[in-house]
Amino acid sequence: MKTSNSLWKGRLAGEIPERLAHEIDSFETDMALRKQGKMDERLFAETRLRRGAYGQRYDNGQRHDGKNVQSMTYPSGDLTKGPMTMWDAPGMQRIKIPAGGVNAVQLETMAEVAEEYSDGIAHVTTRQDFQLHYIHIDDTPSIMRRLAAAGITTREACGNSVRNVTACPYAGVCQDEAFDVTPYSRALSRFLLGHPDCQNFGRKFKPAFSGCSQHACGLTSMHDLGLIAKKADDGGEEKLGFEVYVGGGLGAVPYQAKLFESFLPPEELLPLAQAIARVFAKYGEKKNRNRARIKFLVQDLGIEKFKELVMEERRNLPFDPRWTEYVTDAVASRESPLRPGGEAIPLVSIGSSEAFERWLKTNTRPQKQPGYRTVTVTLPLGDITANQLRSLADIVRRFTKETVRTTVEQNFVIRWVSKSDVPEIYGALQAVGLGDPGAGALVDIVACPGTDTCKLGISSSRGLAAELRTRLAEKSFQMDEAIQGLHIKISGCFNSCGQHHVADLGFYGVSRKLGGYAVPHFQVVLGGEWEHNAGSYGLPIAAIPSKNIPQVVTRLTERYVAERENSESFKDFTKRIGKAELKKMLDDLTRPPAGAPDRSFFSDWGDPREYSLGDLGTGECAGEVVSPFDFEMAGAERELFEGQLAFEGGQPELAGQKAYRAMLLGAKALVKTQAADISDDADLIVSEFRSRFFDTQLFWDPFAGGKFANYLFDAHLTAGEPYPLDRSRYLLDEAQLFIDAAHSCNNKMMTAVRV
């Protein structure tokens, strides 16, 4: 049986392409050299990242299923001989799935490696990839070979490279698309994989395709390179092309992609992408990783200058026959059904049940091809077990020609299901625990790995997602229709891997003090838009203790139902209500319950560790003492919130000024912990902050470095310059992150004093 991936065109399953076999051999050699101390750790880190091998958090000793990580077998033995390293502790393997397309053999291979090398669970990501957690780096070459034999690569799944090329999972069957973008996404993925012009980036580069502008399936607005299918009339002849966007991205500070070209012919797709890669490699930041994404380059140069540089590169590119060959090869490969289309879905036996009716409504959608529907397989938290993967492989063989894809909402879609087979495929999915309803609805919550496995995790995104899903599932089908269609997305930190910026209800993890101790919180982000390819980004409203977030969801959704006007969207509703009123209605949730709170309030969702009531004391939590730091930080947060209100009210100049002022007050709050009589002079505050906290690396994130301090330095350097709309928006995001980092810095200093 031939695999569907063009990298393995003409090869039988079980064979490994010579080039990939050589690369895996080379990686194994690099591992041996690193173990012998003959390769620098920084060089080896980038080498393994470009093959999808990540380090993983292991400090909490717990897995997301509650099992103890330290009960697992480690390759180098006794963990008591000093701190664990990547050679001792489990890590993560990311696996690249271009456009999310997999076949039955690949699903079965994923099941085998998940079972043999991981914890028996494969995780679908928000970029249509797979991730395996709790793997050992010594096993990664074997994993890579097993996957390569099934037509799957881990090459450039991580690192400063072109990441997985994503595409709408409904491409080719969607009723609203201009045309099928699948072949073009696969051609681009094939062309850029390992391309020499893509090996010298300062950071990662993420492309995405969408078949239309109105839906969210491609999310092109938040990508480094976004391509939307478009048709044009050329003298009565219909032409296919792409609307091209560049410079989008979420991360700590989200940027909306800029229009680069309104209509790009398909034959120019690969050479233009190559030219953009060359400009990014040549002019993109290399030293400061915090400004090394292409969004910063586009912002600094301006879209016109950036386009000028790209088109100059395009003119100078020598002709490459692959530009047309790869596209021609991909277009020639078309999906087809296994069974004839049905005229109607037979509502008999299992098909007449209430559960089936719910599933049918949320988990199926008609294709543009008459007689067929696309079926969505909902994966809670994006997880699927090895046995479920095998069952899914059997199901897609039975009902389709193995036409299944992963989605950016961490699910699967099975395409080309005959209407006549819908009740039967539901029964088959239900029998193996894959028949949950609610796909794309409020209950279908997206979450990054968070504190379960990610080294950057601050709060338990998966723990909160699981709790919200449990609560919402109990009453989801009694909810108002408008509520069922909302999206909840959760990130464990500010980096937006859970895409919280584009959710109706977004949350990202932060740390705050209660009673003198750090307590897990989430920032509530409102105003984002999932539709229109991630049409707009939300802004933070308030930091709420993790245990109060379910009440946040309840209050906001209930008020939306009660007060929305006609068919008003949640985004428009929050804009009309205004941030001041929204903050006011959540204000009491920023504090612990009255009286002595239950001790579980001071722990995170799904984390067995708790804070002891005996350790809490009666400090600020009881309102008896307000430290100088907390007093100044209250002013900083007030200034920031007023800036958000100014931005909401169409006053970007005032918003920018207040965002800068908020950072100054946050810096002053920290300086006052060491020098109580610091004045209000901005130059002095910045100078003292730099010498006391930046130069000493007290204000230093282990993974972001001095990124957040540089937000203040840059804002101070440009203070007095105009604040146009884009700049004030970015400054508000940066100010929020600076304030969060100031809280974390103070928490760390207090912990060090207690120890």
Can you tell me the overall shape?
globular
Instruction: Name the helicity range.
Output: 25-40%
Question: Strands of the largest sheet, in order across it?
Answer: 1-2-5-4-13
Unreliable segments (pLDDT under 50, ≥5 consecutive)?
1-13, 59-84, 611-626
Per CATH, which architecture of the largest domain? Answer: 2-Layer Sandwich
Distance between the termini: 62 Å
Q: CATH superfamily membership of the largest domain, which one?
A: Sulfite Reductase Hemoprotein, domain 1
**Residue fraction in strands:** 5-15%
Report the major sheet.
5 strands, antiparallel
- Please give the CATH class of the largest domain: Alpha Beta
The CATH topology of the largest domain corresponds to Sulfite Reductase Hemoprotein, domain 1
